[in-house]
Specification:
single chain; alpha/beta; Rossmann fold; 2 domains; four-stranded parallel sheet; 11 helices; 18% strand; globular; disordered N terminus
């Protein structure tokens, strides 16, 4: 087997939110080795100008590729919107997979008349989401709700905090009983599924993690880069805040992500 076949899949996000995508990846690809980098020192990306997000994404991607990543997964909606195309051009020899709001499956669901998309302001205003909406939103009313500050609160590590509930009530409360589904357009948001359901009631929730995991498997298989079934999978968690307490938070959030997402 070629040396690259035994390399790792590099996964990165602005912070802990990408751990929800990592949980999906591990479930889909149990034999792969994953290295996850969360840029918590610069979180959240959704409030930053695109040029800064691009610079941060490039720096992380370069470090992972230099270390031997055989593929990159951008586990952040904002970073995907800003940097995916550039990274695919710069690392054309390896698969580069992004995540996007799960608007397509929401529009294909039996109930799809009114779809609420909660995301960062950056994700909603960038061209990638607008193209997604133009392609799949023709037969639905898509309600965009920029949830400023929400990812930042989740990043603190207490998904059940009253502050998160208060913010959800402010952003989502006016739409309670008025939409068919909610698209979780930031990888942080699946960590607060229970709180979202408490505010929105019995509506279907969609997130992009599962689709990203399936696409990663497809791209690895197409490039003949899937790990052999004899290989024991592994996960290494890293953060730009490199302290024992921060890494313990990452481990706790990752276990929560695996159970809830």
């Amino acid at each position: 087997m070629a040396e690259q076949d035994t390399g790792f899949v590099g996964v990165f996000d602005s912070g802990v939110g990408g751990l929800t995508v990592l949980g999906r990846l591990v479930a889909e690809l149990p034999h792969e080795r994953f290295v996850f980098f969360g840029d918590s020192a610069h979180a959240p990306y959704g409030d930053k100008p695109p040029e800064e997000v691009l610079a941060l994404s490039r720096r992380i991607a370069a470090a992972l590729v230099d270390e031997g990543a055989k593929a990159l997964v951008i586990a952040c909606n904002t970073a995907t919107s800003v940097s995916a195309q550039a990274l695919r051009e710069e690392y054309a020899s390896i698969p580069v997979i992004g995540v996007e709001p799960a608007l397509k499956p929401a529009t294909l669901a039996p109930r799809h008349r009114r779809i609420l998309v909660m995301a960062t302001a950056a994700t909603l205003r960038l061209g990638k989401f607008q193209r997604l909406e133009d392609r799949w939103g023709a037969n639905s009313e898509v309600i965009e709700v920029p949830c400023v500050g929400l990812a930042d609160l989740i990043e603190k590590g207490d998904p059940a905090s009253p502050a998160i509930r208060e913010l959800l009530e402010r952003y989502l409360g006016p739409w309670r009983g008025k939409v068919d589904s909610v698209v979780l357009g930031c990888t942080h948001y699946p960590l607060i599924r229970d709180q979202i359901r408490e505010v929105m009631g019995d509506v279907q929730l969609f997130d992009g993690g599962a689709g990203t995991a399936r696409e990663t498997r497809r791209r690895l298989a197409a490039a003949d880069l899937l790990a052999p079934e004899s290989q024991a999978g592994s996960v290494e968690l890293r953060s730009s805040i490199d302290t024992p307490d921060e890494l313990a938070l990452y481990r706790r959030i990752f276990e929560l992500a695996r159970s809830c997402c």
